[in-house]
């Protein structure tokens, strides 16, 4: 039957292939994979950068879900030099930071959901500040600072055992303010303390500080937690403010609403911080989509999507962007700025989450969960940009990465193997989800498959390599030597093909896919005839549960199906079932009793 997928979701980033592995079909057909002289390869995929804070000396604090940067193992909280190089003198005592603030003395406070701490200059925990911890299941996700007051937001109901409903004030010495208690029904999505004596709160509630305030309002830092008279008066059938951004002229609010203080506004507005909350008439840019980032840097407002793309419209100009830029004075859309233009539509999660000014000249540092920038440049989770949005080639090029995941290894009896999974780099070289190992264990540089989102692969030995391409939602056939797409073959599907497997004369498909080119529709589990390249519309085993693997025995011309199913053709089965490969009739006499109904052949 040729190659067999035998690795499922394996990390970390070093892939060891040093052990000899015997790959056998249900028949006597088998071959041995020899030990590889060069077995170890670093596979990397994008991490997620949640926060970037530029310090007064020009260095950066970066936090998020990542554990590789600049070739070093890190814990999701790092400090970068001015040029972006990793600062080796900083070792954070708090992993995976979500937010940072700095007080007037230059002391850094950080939260990662589970704790709020103060960091010493070298990143270690400052023993002079007692850690603030939320209730079990609660999180501290946002910190703002005003003087010696830390304003906290999140999903907590208590801090260090003291009841607090998603908003709290803590002194810079770590004391929870006993008198500052905010009564509200917000889901707290963002906080902003611009230093004017107030903390602005965004969310999707209707009351804040005991007063009616739809989705955004402000609380005096020095008060008792009661609402201020400032009221944006948002209107709309569905109202939520997701992000706040500050500039010298007011406060940008972004979310879902249709009016502000009686004037039409489509999901974006700027409001004065004066007592009357005066609406800025100059900003009329309409926005649609779910906002995950709003930040003023220099003369621009940057807006990022937390899902797919944002659409901004002003007069005849309309653009769709994962990260868009508008003039903060006029609302004019910068139609040329599109640093994430090359992100495929299949990569729905790709997004910019955080942004900070770079080292002069309009440069930027963006973080998020992306794998590449415009022009095809691979950058994992963190990237420096020039003022026009192109990749900044000056200085260091930091990336925030996680170990790659393997889904399958397909060995070739003639030498070498094909490795499939979720990764963007292999040993520093760009390789997206698929690469070939040469017989000596090195990465085969002559094998260059298309730069597409590959969710599964399978080798038909001596014939072709099949891939499930999520970028085009089609199964395609590649030249096994070069990786080039072979013409004249493509089968379209919808949703996701999670695995492909060659067994005997067929290619088996697994996943949540649907193939509508046959009647009735094939879904979940199907097979394709390798000789004809057509789907077998008659192959429809009646199973209760899912199939995870198929074995073909040419000696008996039978198929062994394994997985998490409990019945086959109405007969009880605890995982495996055997069919005649030609008639597709269930072998009712073959019924091994297993202790578990979840079986895999990987």
Note down, in words, how this protein is organized.
With 602 residues, this protein is mainly β. Among the domains are: 14-45 and 402-538, 4 Propeller (Hemopexin), CATH 2.110.10; 221-331; 541-602, no CATH class.
Q: Outline the biggest β-sheet.
A: 5 strands, antiparallel
State the helical fraction.
under 10%
Strand content: 35-45%
Give Rg in angstroms.
Answer: 28 Å
Determine the N-to-C terminus distance: 14 Å
CATH architecture of the domain at 14-45 and 402-538: 4 Propeller
Briefly note the structural class of the backbone. mainly beta
Question: How many separate helices?
Answer: 0
What's the CATH topology label of the domain at 14-45 and 402-538? Hemopexin
The average pLDDT value, as a whole number, equals 90
Counted beta strands: 57
CATH class of the domain at 14-45 and 402-538: Mainly Beta
Global shape: elongated
């Amino acid at each position: 039957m040729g190659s067999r997928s035998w690795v499922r979701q394996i990390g970390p980033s070093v892939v060891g292939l040093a052990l000899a592995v015997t790959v056998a079909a249900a028949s006597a057909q088998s071959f041995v994979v020899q030990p590889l002289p060069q077995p170890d390869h670093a596979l990397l995929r994008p991490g997620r950068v949640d926060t970037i804070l530029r310090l007064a000396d020009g260095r950066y604090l970066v936090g998020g879900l990542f554990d590789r940067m600049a070739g070093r193992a890190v814990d999701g909280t790092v400090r970068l030099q001015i040029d972006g190089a990793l600062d080796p003198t900083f070792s954070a005592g708090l992993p995976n930071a979500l937010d940072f603030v700095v007080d007037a003395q230059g002391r850094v406070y950080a939260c990662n959901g589970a704790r709020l701490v103060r960091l010493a200059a070298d990143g270690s925990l400052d023993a002079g500040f007692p850690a603030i911890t939320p209730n079990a299941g609660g999180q501290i996700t946002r910190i703002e600072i005003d003087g010696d007051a830390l304003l906290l937001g999140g999903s907590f109901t208590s801090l260090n055992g003291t009841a607090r409903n998603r908003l709290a004030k803590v002194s810079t010495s770590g004391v929870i303010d006993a008198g500052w208690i905010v009564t509200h029904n917000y889901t707290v999505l963002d906080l902003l303390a611009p230093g004017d004596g107030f903390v602005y709160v965004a969310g999707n509630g209707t009351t804040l500080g005991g007063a009616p305030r739809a989705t955004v309002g402000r609380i005096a830092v020095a008060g008792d937690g009661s609402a201020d008279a400032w009221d944006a008066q948002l209107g709309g059938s569905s109202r939520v403010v997701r992000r706040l951004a500050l500039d010298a002229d007011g406060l940008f609010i972004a979310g879902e609403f249709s009016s502000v203080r009686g004037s039409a506004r489509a999901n974006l507005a700027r409001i004065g911080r004066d007592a009357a909350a005066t609406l800025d008439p100059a900003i009329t840019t309409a926005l649609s989509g779910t906002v995950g980032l709003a930040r003023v840097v220099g003369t621009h407002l940057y807006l990022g999507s937390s899902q797919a793309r944002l659409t901004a419209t002003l007069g005849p100009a309309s653009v769709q962007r994962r990260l868009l830029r508008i003039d903060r004075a006029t609302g004019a859309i910068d139609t040329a700025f599109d640093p994430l233009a090359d992100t495929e539509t299949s990569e729905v999660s790709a997004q910019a989450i955080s942004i900070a000014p770079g080292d002069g000249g309009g440069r930027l540092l963006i973080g998020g969960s992306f794998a590449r920038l415009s022009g095809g440049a691979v950058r994992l989770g963190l990237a420096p940009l020039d003022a026009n949005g192109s990749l900044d080639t000056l200085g260091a090029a930091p990336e925030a990465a996680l170990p790659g995941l393997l889904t399958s290894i397909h060995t070739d009896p003639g030498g070498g193997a094909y490795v499939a999974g979720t990764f963007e780099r292999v040993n520093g070289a760009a390789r997206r989800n698929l690469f070939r190992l040469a017989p000596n264990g090195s990465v085969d540089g002559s094998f260059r498959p298309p730069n597409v989102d590959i969710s599964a692969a399978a080798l038909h030995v001596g014939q072709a390599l099949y891939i499930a391409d999520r970028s085009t939602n089609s199964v395609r056939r590649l030249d096994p030597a070069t990786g080039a797409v072979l013409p004249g073959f493509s089968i379209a599907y919808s949703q996701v093909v999670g695995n492909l497997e060659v067994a005997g004369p067929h290619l088996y498909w697994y996943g949540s896919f649907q193939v509508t080119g046959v009647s009735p529709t094939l879904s979940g589990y199907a097979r394709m005839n390798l000789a004809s390249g057509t789907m077998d519309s008659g192959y429809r085993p009646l199973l209760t549960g899912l199939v995870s693997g198929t074995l073909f025995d040419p000696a008996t011309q039978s198929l062994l199906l394994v997985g998490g199913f409990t019945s086959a053709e109405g007969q009880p089965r605890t995982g495996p079932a055997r069919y005649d490969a030609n008639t597709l009739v269930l072998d009712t006499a073959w019924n091994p009793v297993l202790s578990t109904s979840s079986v895999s052949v990987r």
